[in-house]
Write a structure and sequence with these properties.
By secondary structure, the chain is mainly beta. About 0% of the residues lie in helices and about 35% in strands. The protein has a domain at about 25-75.
C-alpha cells in the first residue's frame, strides 16, 4: 500500500510564490552587544527597517525618511 498522505507543497499551484531575495531591502547591522552581524528588513508599512540581535533579542529600528543616509551597514550599540 502506498503512503496515504499527500504532500500539498509539491503542487506548484498551492505553494506560495518564491520571494526573490534580491528584491527585499535590508540593512546590515553589527550588534555590538553580542558581537554578531545580522540583516534587518523593511517593515510592511515601508517606513522603517526593523530587526533584533540574533543572540540577545535587543531590538533595533531605523526610520526611513527625507534627509537620511545612503549607508547600508551600521553598528548598533
Amino acid at each position: 500500500m502506498e503512503n496515504p498522505r499527500i504532500d500539498l507543497t509539491s503542487d506548484p499551484r498551492l505553494a506560495p510564490p518564491p520571494e526573490d531575495a534580491s528584491s527585499r531591502s535590508f540593512l546590515g547591522v553589527n550588534f555590538a552587544c553580542c558581537g554578531v552581524y545580522a540583516r534587518i528588513y523593511v517593515n510592511p508599512e515601508r517606513n522603517a527597517y526593523r530587526g533584533h540581535c540574533p543572540r540577545c533579542g535587543r531590538p533595533v529600528q531605523m526610520k526611513i525618511g527625507p534627509g537620511g543616509t545612503d549607508e547600508r551597514f551600521f553598528t548598533a550599540y
